[in-house]
Amino acid sequence: MKHRILELYSGIGGMHCAWNESKLEGEIVAAVDINTVANQVYLYNFPKSNLMTRNIQALSLKEINDMNVNTILMSPPCQPFTRNGKYLDENDPRTNSFLYLISLLDKFDKLQYILMENVKGFECSTVRNLFIDKLNQCQFEYQEFLLCPSNVGVPNSRLRYYCIARKTTSTWAFKRKTEIMMSLPKAYGAPDSIESILEKDVSHKYLVKNNILKRGNVLDIIQKDSKRSCCFTKAYTHYAEGTGSIYTEASPETVDECFERANKFEVGTDNFIETLKELNLRFFTPKEVLLLMSFPSSYKFPETITIKQCYRLLGNSINVKVVSELLKLLFD
């Protein structure tokens, strides 16, 4: 069966990449996002796409039904379910478009399959309860997951909520009725090392600046042999803590020795910073972050997109490998 897919909150096209990687039969008949910068990147990589710069609430039921889609892939705004978004849940206006979609679920003519991604925390929300209640009302079989790329052999942490749902008379053999699954039913090998995604001859512009080095003790520093990296957020390169890992070619022993010397000075002083500069700490490039998020090696950012914009877009994107594996389960 050749599936017809509607990609909502399409961003830079992570779901599109995941569909391609899954090798399933079908086509993305339309993609919708209101972010014009993300849409530039999407079209640069998928120039023949039917991409709409629209508010999802502006899509009428008739318009969607006329597309004859049987599959919806979506990653609604996550801010309402995060600390930075003050956990406003259904009271955050950024949930309005998703609530609108939930209200339409029983009215779509041909919808059979859904994959939805969101931030960890969504599973505790009122919006999640409304979504699941509607899936039950519409007689969708569904399974929820909390998954990290490391679950599928990718050396990156990015714990996210996923829900796959389908209308079917059969039940998944792996299904856990009231449980959120923390792994996929298939076994995967250990993550590759970071070396597999490193670019060569990286520009000095990616070296960590003094304003970040002065808080060097909170940096997550990894090497080429590391088999992990922290979640990259849209604030990467702007804040020191919790926004993503930092790379160095220095050995772990050299890093420890350098920090021991640096910490003999007052943290944040010129001497502290100058000592840490010996490690040539650098940020991962946008291309490297793309690869850690399992985008294909052919994927590129257009030259019109700034580095800051690249990181912001990546921070809002998905891990392609995780979604690709979930798609295979959804259509199994």
Automatic annotation (TrEMBL):
InterPro entries: C5-MTase (IPR050750), C5_MeTfrase (IPR001525), C5_meth_CS (IPR031303), SAM-dependent_MTases_sf (IPR029063). One of its GO terms (biological process) is methylation. GO terms for molecular function: methyltransferase activity. SUPFAM superfamilies: S-adenosyl-L-methionine-dependent methyltransferases. The active site is at C78. The keyword Cell division does not apply. GO terms for cellular component: nucleus. Keywords: Methyltransferase, S-adenosyl-L-methionine, Transferase. Its EC number is 2.1.1.204. The keyword Methyltransferase applies. PANTHER family: TRNA (CYTOSINE(38)-C(5))-METHYLTRANSFERASE (PTHR46098). Belongs to the class I-like SAM-binding methyltransferase superfamily. C5-methyltransferase family. This is tRNA (cytosine(38)-C(5))-methyltransferase. It comes from Papilio xuthus.
